[in-house]
Amino acid sequence: MSTSKKSFFANIKYDFPAGLVVYLVALPLCLGIALASTGRSDLLFSGIIAGVVGGIVVGALSGSALGVAGPAAGLVIIVLTAIDTLQSFEAFLLAVVLAGVIQIVAGLLKAGIIGYYFPSSVIKGMLAAIGITLILKEIPHAFGYDKDFIGDEAFLQTDGHNTFTELYYSVKYSSTGAIIISLVSLGLLLLFDRPFMKQIQLFRFLPGALFVVMIGILLNVLFQVVRPEWAMGGEHLVQLPIASSPQEFLSFFKTPDFSAITNPNVYVVAITLAIVASLETLLSVEATDKLDPYKRSTPTNRELMAQGVGNMVSGLVGGLPITQVIVRSSANVESGGRTKLSAITHGVILLLSAIVIPTFLNLIPLASLAAILLLVGYKLSKFSLYQGMYRLGWDQFVPFVVTVIAILMTDLLKGIAIGMVVAVYYILRKNYRHSHHYKKEEYKDGEVIRLILSEEVTFLNKGSIGLTLEELPENSTVIIDGSKSVDIDYDVLEIIQNFKLHTAPLKNIKIETIGIRDVNAVGGH
After folding, report:
1. C-alpha to C-alpha distances, 166 to 130, 159, 295, nearest whole angstrom
2. Which parts form a coiled-coil structure per UniProt (predicted)?
């Protein structure tokens, strides 16, 4: 075996169990998002296709060690509206293919750099908010009330309820069997999380989530015999389409309607999908890199191109649009995944299980899978995260909390946008305050004021420097020292020169500049 193959499979004892957990998390998400996105039970397999492509194709091409791609809840409304607008799922698939092309071009044009401009406080707020959202959204499924699809992240739900009213109805219409299965599942997951359990060789390779699912199936079968009124059925179980023949299985795959290429609405949908999917991907990349225990950095331009190829393939074979998804990615991190082999493994298992054991999969209670997601949510939003952000100061804590609340009350992208506004306000305020150091020195000849500019002086510092210059006392001597500055923006140079040439003489202020270029030389290029 070659060295590259050896290194690729070197972490399989960590990546296979993690891939298995990600698969168990992804399975209900793929089906739930497909049903919510299309509104048609005959298109449920489109979610599985997207999950498989996200795992195998994007996993292989991506530079992300732990990121996992698949259908995303954030695209549900866009997809549902687009299919209605285009009047055809096949025409929509063409838009998905074109969205992939746009993402590839964006990657080639280095648009992935946008990902580096999301403040850390906002990204950590997103992680905490998704954790809380998972807990709140999975409680109804754990209680056996499944009116909203698994994976929904929005405050206002497609079933007419919201995150909090859904909790009321889940208690009101709870199922004893579902609650028992959920509690047992949570207890087992917590047990498997204990250090002594990880010392057992079997449980190092087979994750606790797998045993939780098996116990959930056995409990539900037992209920059917002992207490039929407790047994889960129908919408409370996984509902994977089952093909009675190879031909019917192949019919689950669709191809784009290329005749719709002349429809301008197809391009509008494609551009919308490309922008939103790319933003969600870049946000997830930043969040996953922060969760990575090895602190590896994902090349964002390569990620955009990998996602683009993934969307092209998904659209060509009948799948939903895909993005990197933080829920799957965080499950991968928490399960001990080390390389992208875990993402690829989850895609392979998803494909094989859909072909070989769909009947068995349809025995899995959603309550068991909800328990797995509840634990993922808890690990994303631990109290220690809030403590750590509070210790960093208000300029980090306030944007963090605002992001959390905004995401909980709206949805992911709107919440991030609100958090960004607050974070940028604090960044501007910090820049305003720390663009320079005002130092007064006493000499025999009189008072000398030294204004030392910071390393980077941008147009954001224009206001604070201008105000400082205006407040300089008359008849003083001023030294403006830019020797430590790597770059001084033209706007700031212009303010300094105007003050030196016009304002200072009127106030009898003597100005000396060090390391500051002439504004005419800068403006003449």
Report:
1. 17, 9, 37
2. none
Rounded-to-integer distance, Cα 418 and Cα 497, Å: 38
3-state secondary structure of 455: coil
Sequence-ordered alpha helix ranges (H) in 323-439: 326-334, 341-356, 358-361, 366-380, 383-391, 394-409, 412-433
Q: From the CB of residue 418, how many other CB atoms can be counted at a distance below 10 Å?
A: 20
Residue 383 in tokens? 């109290």
Q: Is 148 helix (H, G, I), strand (E, B) or coil?
A: coil
Summarize pLDDT for 280-308 with one digit per residue, the tens.
Answer: 999 999 999 999 999 898 999 999 999 99
How far is 365 from 183, CA to CA, in rounded Å? 13
Q: Hey, which residues does 412 pair with through a beta bridge?
A: none
User: Has this prediction a pTM greater than 0.90?
Assistant: no
Half-sphere exposure of 123 (CA within 13 A, CB side): 20
Whole-number Å distance between alpha carbons of 92 and 23 = 26
Give CATH for domain 435-523: 3.30.750.24
Distance CA 176, CA 510 (A): 83
Helix (H, G, I), strand (E, B) or coil at 431: helix
pLDDT for the residue 522: 44
Phi, psi of 367 (to 5 degrees): -60, -40
Bridge partners, 481 (sequence order): 452, 514
Position 436 pLDDT exceeds 90: no
* Distance, CA of 204 to chain centre: 28
Give me the amino acid identity at 382: K
Catalogue the E-assigned strands of 85-155: none
Contact 325, 264 (CB under 8 A): no
Rounded-to-integer distance, Cα 308 and Cα 312, Å? 6
Residue from 282, 283, 319, 297 nearest 70 by CA: 319
Span 153-206, pLDDT tens digits: 899 988 889 999 999 999 999 999 999 999 999 999 999 988 888 778 777 788
Task: Give yes or no for residue 27 having a pLDDT over 80.
Answer: yes
